[in-house]
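CO-FOLDING WORKSHEET

Operator: S.A.
Ligand of interest: adenosine-5'-triphosphate
Run index: 283
Mode: holo prediction, single chain
Checklist:
[x] sequence pasted
[x] SMILES validated
[ ] output reviewed
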Amino acid sequence: MFKIKDLSYRYPKNQTDTIKGISFEVKQGEIFGFLGPSGAGKSTTQKLLIKLLEGYEGEIYYLDKPLNTFKESFYQDVGVSFEMPIHFSKLTASENIEFFKRFYKKTIDTDKLLKQVGLYEDKDKKVGEYSKGMKIRLNFVRAMINDPKILFLDEPTNGLDPTNAKILKDLILDFKARGGTVFLTTHIMNDVEQLCDRVGFIKEGRIIEIDTPKNLKLKYGKKVITVEYKDDNQLTLVTFDQSTIKTNEAFFDLMKHKEIVTIHSGETTLEEIFIKVTKERIV
Ligand SMILES: Nc1ncnc2c1ncn2[C@@H]1O[C@H](COP(=O)(O)OP(=O)(O)OP(=O)(O)O)[C@@H](O)[C@H]1O
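OUTPUT RECEIVED:
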């Protein structure tokens, strides 16, 4: 859906490039997670892909045509939900939705979506009276009003309680099941585990890793056994590599001589992989 080749971008007032020659693809029908430390260039990349920033070097193709050949019609295909919800606070949710609907040729039945995100009963309330979580959910509805082909989501569940976060994640998965493509940035690795087909890691403007979460776990992960034990009334946590546990004297020593509180087996989490990948420079 998007092909990005050697993309570089420098903000006009800066001395150095923020995006330094990145190449990747967002495939049709996938949820692509774009991850990286704060300031790595995720939002900048997102803004380049939705034509909010111009004057880049390299190539961006949308549906196999250069992105800069698309005019306003491009936005008919795109849904955007950035982290900071932008609404007219003196208008009701319904009025906000009606206002934004005017920009699009095709729109969806927003009442159904408002019901799904639990805002239908409050649709005639002024958005200024909405809680943070309600505004975030309304932001998602707004991103969907034109029945987009691609959704750009920036931290979509940040600030939502677990129930509402799950509702939103299920709606994102429904969107994908209907053939939609999603470009998602988030710091919540649980969301990545539950949603993303592939993830790309960006650090200091360079892509340092792209793969499926499963392959990343195979590459960076190892099965571990974590033991929690009591020593002089203090709780201590140690982790052992599961593959060598049979011959690990330190493990047996612990079992024989310490008061064991818990033993858990598990695999490396995406959170640990994030820390590892973004700490080391791979290329
Ligand atoms: N308008 C701007 N003018 C100049 N520099 C900018 C501008 N916007 C962002 N930057 C710089 O570009 C770099 C990348 O910022 P960007 O917002 O893309 O990071 P990010 O990965 O999205 O971070 P976060 O996870 O904190 O949202 C940062 O060093 C930032 O200071």
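REVIEW:
The radius of gyration is 23 Å.
DSSP finds nine helices and 13 strands in the chain.
[x] output reviewed
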